[in-house]
Amino acid sequence: SKILILLERSFTMVHLAMPREFTDHPLPRRVRDLLGEENLQDTELYFKSSNSCLRANGFLLSMCSPVLHKMIYGSFSESLTRHVDLYEVDGKAFGKVLDLWCGREDSEDNELWDVLALGSIADRFQISEVVEMLEKVIVDQLSVGVCGDVLASSGGIGMLRLEEAARRLTLDRFEEVAQTPGFGNIDEDALGKLLDDDTLVARREEAVWEALVAWMTADEGALRGRALLPKIRFPLMSAAYLSSKVRQSLPPEHADWVDSFVRAALLAKAGAAG
């Protein structure tokens, strides 16, 4: 698909590994040595969405994740084997996050979506060391081609440094980012903050308007984003564009959304000329 082709050109598939200072520490090295000891696997993680199970050591899981620590040891159980149900968590991806935390190198090729998915799981379970590593992988490859998709996803997975880097790149190269498929995935609140930012770079306000219209019409079905219209600086547009192009940019049934903005902008320009 067009989106996948764009991502393949913009994001080099990578192998994932924790930093050497982490993997070479004696504790993670010892943890890796003990991973295969079946008699230490006293906890079952049951992934409801995939109907799969992972057996691991409860102490290891507690060291890895404060969230899992509360889930495993938060209630008393007489059973020697602890059982934790996990909803909406991919078992294979969780296992990969756990392996990364233990210092194992992931030899598979990972695309942007893979790294973001792993980051979402690591953030959900507060596995901060893995979040930081994955965030660095994406920041190092951040480009216009993937910026919209990253901005649409990063805030929800706790990668604040990545979110800020994507936001900065979008502001600096707004018109280019607006041409990518991922731009339509940015949520309304995030786009509103971009439009409010005085550091947004665009050749003309007309280009900002056209980018907003493309976003408003990107989602099949009802037009979205009416609340974003006041963020457009209509008086900066040319009178000819205001008179002939702005209303035509929207579907006929919604053209009246911009009437008051166009009238006010034309009056302001007439007053300035007088």
Automatic annotation (TrEMBL):
Repeat recorded as keyword: yes
Pfam families per the UniProt record, alphabetical: BACK, BTB
Keyword vocabulary terms for this entry: Kelch repeat, Repeat
InterPro entries: BACK (IPR011705), BTB/POZ_dom (IPR000210), SKP1/BTB/POZ_sf (IPR011333)
Residues annotated as domain BACK: 147-247
Protein name from the UniProt record: BACK domain-containing protein
Organism whose genome encodes this protein: Cryptomonas curvata
